[in-house]
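Deliverable D4.2, example record:
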Amino acid sequence: MRKAVQFILGLAIVGLVYYIATLIATPLSFENQLKTRNAEVIVKLKDIRTAERAYKSKYKKFTGNFDTLIYFILNDSLQMERKLVDEDDSVAMAMLKKMKKKNVETYYIKVIDTIFNPRKFTVEDVQNLRYIPYTNNTVEFYLEAGEAATGSTMVLPVIECRAPYKAYLDTIEFRQNVINLIDDRVNNYGQYAGLMFGSLEGSNNEAGNWGE
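Output generated by the structure prediction step:
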């Protein structure tokens, strides 16, 4: 009888230790996942923002359509300028003046070859730009573009791109942790429950909400 009681107590102690260890390990594991996955989502958000800014530099507006943005990256070009001669070279500058030429040359470069430098993007990289990491290329970033009026009569192009936490965090293993995170962001801080850049409500220079 005594041995049976000791055995049951031993099992209870092991169970209690396991429970306490789980209480400690689960939040730590979730924080590690949150940090790792956030970092990858931010990289993609920055790439989308880079492409949107390049698109705006040419077309004076943003696009809320990934097909349009991807086509732009893969097939379009940007107009660039470079100096013909060194401005400290008085002889060369005098020649240009004599020829009534400006010290500027216009040239064009493919979008994909310039905006992501020094990284090199493949066609597949560009085509997958629309997908939120850790979704097996099934869930797209929420991308919207439009115009917003400033305090004056000026109207500015605006862009907003979002990735909700529930799309890329493990909502099975860390279900309660994700629920708590979303509740904290929305109800305690009045913030978007995920990562995003830009705002449709007004121009904020396409700022990200990750503390940049």
